[in-house]
């Protein structure tokens, strides 16, 4: 069937679209810290359901950078569908460094399935390419995420579940009564109650025919206007020429 006969309907509604997920969301994180050794880098996860995990290591790896001076962390993990945070820090290190450098580049942060569909340009990896290499090395970074459930349903009715997100961020050096607080890179998230749904549908034949007729009709209309303009200009020119001869 011609691509012109395929349409997409966008909807917004309030619901949890993926009720078979067990109340969890898959997360993929890829981040480089070029000035922090891999043995110091860790991922911590906590949320309002009481989860508090320090030094998460399942389905993750740390790749040395800059001759071992830096580290690239890549991990896949899941979070509960409740407000919470995960953060890259030195909290799980055996010995805390004196001045950990948290400058970084975020290569990827995404939630749920990867949607590779033409003409859907959502914020599925809104932080991809975020560069904080020139920030204060001793600063913490807060990324405040609002996660939006997103569903894509193809013509066969098969659904894929992903998540877009908006982000705001701030950078700061924190202090307590005991002195400066060890910096970290925080991703604080909450879920939007609104779900975005993209549904792919075949357009009815009559709509396709109507579109073609409209295009043809528009072409003839433009051609008629051009012909009328040319005729009017020609008549005016003839009158001018006759005026010169009299």
From TrEMBL:
Q: Where is the Endoplasmic reticulum vesicle transporter N-terminal domain?
A: 10-53
Classify the protein's membrane topology as the record does: Multi-pass membrane protein
One Pfam family in the UniProt entry: COPIIcoated_ERV
Q: Which residues form the Endoplasmic reticulum vesicle transporter C-terminal domain?
A: 62-227
The record's GO CC annotations read: COPII-coated ER to Golgi transport vesicle; endoplasmic reticulum membrane; endoplasmic reticulum-Golgi intermediate compartment membrane; Golgi membrane
The keyword Transmembrane helix is assigned to this record: yes
Q: Give a short account of what the protein does.
A: Plays a role in transport between endoplasmic reticulum and Golgi.
The entry sums up its family as follows: Belongs to the ERGIC family.
Name of the protein this chain belongs to: Endoplasmic reticulum-Golgi intermediate compartment protein
What organism, scientifically named, is this protein from?
Phascolarctos cinereus (Koala)
